Amino acid sequence: MQAKLALIIIDMQKGMQSPVLDLVQWSRAQSFPIVHVRHISRTVGSSFWPGQAGAEFQEALSPLPHEHVVEKNVPDVFIRSGLERWLHVRGINQLIIAGVSTENSVEASVRTAGNLGFNVYVAADACFTFAKSDCSGRQRTAQEVHDIALANLQGEYATVMSALDIKQQLSN
Question: What is the pTM of this model?
Answer without folding.
Answer: 0.91
